[in-house]
Amino acid sequence: xxxxxxxxxxxxxTSAGEKIIVVLFCIVFLVSxxxxxxxxxxxxxxxxxxINFDGIPDEDIWSSLExxxxxxxxxxxGRTPEQKTDVRLFFDNTYLYIGASxxxxxxxxxxxxxxxRDYASWDSxxxxxxxxxxxxxxxxxxxxVNTNGIRTDATTQNDLLNGMNDINFNYNTFWDAISKIDxxxxxxEIRIPLSSLRFQGNTDKVTMGIIILRGIANxxxxxxxxxTWPLVPQSKxxxxxxxxxxxxxxxxxxxxxxxPAYLTPYLLGGxxxxxxxxxxxxxxxYKYEAGxxxxxxxxxxxxLDLTANTDFAxxxxxxxxxxxxxxxxxxxxxxxxxxxxSDVFDFSFTQYDxxxxxxxxxxxxxxxVRIYGGLRLTGRAGEWDLGFLDMQTAKFEDLSGQxxxxxxxxxxxxxxxxxxxxIITSRIxxxxxxxxxxxxxxxxxxxxxxxxxxxxxxxxxxNSGNSLFSLQPTHAYAKWxxxxxxxxxxxxxxDWSGENYIPGIGLKARDNFFLKGATFRYAWLPGxxxxxxxxxxxTKNYIYNSSVDGSLESxxxxxxxxxxxxxxxxxxxxxxxxxxxIKETYYIVSPDIFVPQGRYNxxxxxxxxxATSPDRSLGISLSSEAGSYYDGNKFSVSLQPGLNIGSGIxxxxxxxxxxxxxxxxxxxxxxxxxxxxxxFMYTTKLTLTTYVQYNTFSHRIITNVRxxxxxREGSDFYIVYNEGIDSSVKANFLTDQENENRTFLxxxxxxxxx
Length: 754
What we know:
The chain has 754 residues and is mostly beta strands. It has 4 helices and 44 strands.
């Protein structure tokens, strides 16, 4: 029967009763098929039997489970791997278990590099799982293990719309993994406490999105690259195997959430030897401290973190930088308490422009400030993602005690890739000073790969004549972009920052500007026969005007080509043109090196190259920029070699030289930065790290030595030695005492689980 005849029969030739029967039949058919569709999801089963958690998934319980077939993601997307991977999952009342067996045609192809926690590098072979616990298609938890049994965990947000900026590798939670290698077979067992997986478990089953990923580092291996379950197309953006929207939905029947409770006290003792310029003599300070952190699951979806007398003695020193721009430098956060949930509180306009920058808490002019304590509440309340933070610091030098507060909320709207959010921050000093900020933001997936991002923020502080109806304390931002790995991409940007926009606990690289920008890119994925995995051409164009008087400040335009091969080489080459209108004399490093007031045009050529050996034992990154610079010339070279010796020694170096010359004024300046870092991993629990840096501008030699004994997850013993020495000519007139700045610390932490 044709469709027209069927319609006529239904409309004209049937009684009311027959019509009701037909409608009911259709409803039953659709419901039953909907049920059938839901049944097509993989089931992660419950098992109550114990296993011998030894890294070898050989018990009968494993053989009764269904395996997940992996397919190649990179470089030959969709190809069946030549070497078998067998991954199976189940859960009990306490843990989610993953058992994996990875086979190799040649045991010499197994790459074993890295023995320290959170060794996030493709220099080793990996196996792991990414889990979208809320099935919101936005956020994921990552759990990965390398061939040495080293665990790396991370979080992702925003479905990786901003690439690496949306991945937090500094996140740490509680879980276990054991790795075993026998000839050409590598096996792993992973055990993740249900309390480490935050999800809504109020129904008879929980649905999550998962991606399983195996990485092979040796480029001589026929399966070099990454294989995934499910198949993840390369065309789905940057790091698509960590994008929540790429996860395959699976069901966990009967899964119930667990509330975490961990108490982590610490003891610290040490000595600090320094020269006191006020009394003109060397002083010795002895340090004895104790404090604690407490983590507790208030509900299935909300976790409370409390901290008292917070300490960060074991944190690595910042990498030395030299600034040849007129704008502020950015230093990343390295303190674990602030790293752990940083994605929850993010309200960034750009990477270096954020309403919340955690390095404002407990640091002042590069010096540590005592943190009395605070609390952090993170999780989900209904449809809303929630983050709340409150910290109190002590008085330091001319800075009064400060209270820092932040409340961040966000929820999905319209579709899975769109959200609406808000933020409030506060910084209140004991001297009756205050800085309050609020912000509203939204990202809308309008259609296909097109996104519209809108942000609005205002700040208010004491003695500033605050007004809600003025643009001067305002930062407004709008961006329309097409985000895809292949084909044509574009980005149109408007960014306004007013004269009185001063985020008290935020970061801004530039003041008082109105930015208009446009970026265009065309990308190719050449296919199996090409040596290139991907490459693209691009042009970026930005115009900065003053938000105060509208005058032109800067114009930047660049065009270039970027590529990634299917083996171990990637690079970029572009030509850059800048126009800078200098309103007042710009001093670069000293009163002797400066750029006079005026308008300048200058060009430069930038090149970047990164390569590794097939076995990943040696890698090198090289970048260079040369060209005109205001009314002079600039030449910069950066070299970063890396050497892996066996599985337990990593040597990383960095050298950068910047040379600036202004021949018309007989001015020139050269600065060099040297750095050498050695990581000695005796076992997966014992690590010694040394980091030595020298900057010819500051003439300081900075040494940072850290020994870590990881007793078990959450329990560590640290020995830390820091030293700063002035090597300048001036220092030759100083006594040993006057040039002394040394710190020696011992710290012990232990975690009690309840």
